[in-house]
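User: Hi! I'm working on a homework problem where we have to compare a predicted structure to a textbook description. Could you give me the structure for the chain below?
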Amino acid sequence: MTTTDTEGSNVKNEGRGRGRKAVLPPTDYNAPQVLDPLTGLVVRHRDRDGHERDFDFSTLPAAAPLQRSLAVLFAARTHGWGSHETSKGCFRYLHAFATFASQRARPPGDLDELTAAAVKAWWEQQKHTSGRREVFRSVASLLRDDPRLQAGPVFEELARRVPDLPSKVESYAPAEFDQIRLEARRVFRAALLRIEQNAHHLESWHRGAFAPGTPDWALGEALDLIARTGDIPRYKRGEVKIRYRRAVGGRSAEMTWKRLFLDRMEATALGVLLMAQFGWNLTVINVMPTPKAAPDPGSDGQPTYRIPIRKHKGDRSETESATDAGADSPGRLITQALQATRFARALAHNLAPGTDRLLAWRAHCPQRAIENPARRTAIGPIRLGLNDDDAAGWKKRTGTGSPFQRGRRTVVVDRGEPSQHTRDTHERRYVLPDQRVQRQAAPIVAAGAAAALEHARKTVSLAAQLSQERDPSHQETATTDCSSTEQGPAPLPGGCCGASYLACLGCESARIHADHHPRLVQLHQALTNVRSVLPAPVWVRDWSDAHARLEDLRGKVGAGAWGRARGRITTADREIVDDLLSGDLNP
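Assistant: Happy to help. Predicted structure tokens:
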């Protein structure tokens, strides 16, 4: 028996699903279900626009009880899905899971036979790419809805954290993105000019501006046929009838239907411009309805368009606005898009009333079967929207790269604000992982770190007090004299202090007089030398405070006294400093 699978193609059920299909309506997973496993198991999903799509779970490579359990979980989730893109993606993910499970040494007959080891093995298989991680994340979330899997080791494996892999998508450099934008503008504007010229001729023909029998009248008649049917009359073998060939001046697409319609690459060029102007991704552009101008254009006569934005992730909808305020305004591109697609949109509406999509274009070979019907909407010769295949075609034809994913990232990163997503998503998925941003940020971060280090150095000051001469009652240390260990940073029993000798520079009980200056000058120079060979974190942790306090001391005693002290450095001073740096000299 032949049934319809999730992608709309015909597949063999290999003996399953005999008789009528049992349609499982979207409902709660724990609601009573009376399903005969010998029949095809189908879940019907109705999207936000009322369109229906059936998903046949009997096609999954799994035992009938497992097929039914997955169908019930899937059906419960369809309540929150407004797009068939979501349900198609989830079905593909479940098919991948069922395929993995069927290849186990002991395939589970139902979800209660699923083991933690099997889930862990599936994770090990899926974790290597971002796409496969998304498969695991989506299916694990669905399986956790089953009451049999809401506790125990299997649940723990299904509830594991699945972090995103570092993104490999890099935004375009300004020169690269400008080149893509210029190429798209060149292709689309040439098409817009062609369509506008022929539209003007058609309008003149409708007004009776041309005398019957003249070449202009014959061209107008041909354009009218193209507008109403999408093509010009042809013989059975496909050749343009001679009468109309003479009227339009040839038989090529440029001379016939392209007079009023965009082709695939021209529609893709328009999509690229919409992405570059508004930051919309390909999914948004693909399903975008026709923008409508506000009823009152205002005193200046400039139309303001309300643009519906639909995102299938999260089933969110919002509305943006754009005013046509001149040649470079965002609204001008909407005006031009409406002009370039008006004949294709009108023909699609006539052939299928209620059709409402902005991106409408004519296929070169409309009679050719569509390779992937689930991803392409066809109405007669008209195709609606854009998808990844069109982006790949643009890349092949122009050599500028597949523009939408990297292009949207470029727009979002350069604008510095979210576009159809949250601030957290903006930072986490677009800005922080972007390699171009990281390269540009490196010198800024380094400069900021250096400034922070310099600020920290300046805020660490000498706490020891300067004195004119030595006080015999004070105890001498390796760096200063100590007036009282009880007030020190680490007093010990017996009148001792456990702080390092370098810490004496930050102690208010310490006293520094001229006899200390030579040794401290030597210590300052030694720390400066150490800084040049140590990693910055090690330097900051171990030596930067002492160095900063010595810098403060140098400023307080003055350059002259500091220089004179340099000339009084003794061998003993050098040895003591060496011991301080090596750690051989401790309190």
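For your comparison, note the following. The mean pLDDT is 80. The CA atoms of residues 490 and 498 lie 5 Å apart. Good luck with the assignment!
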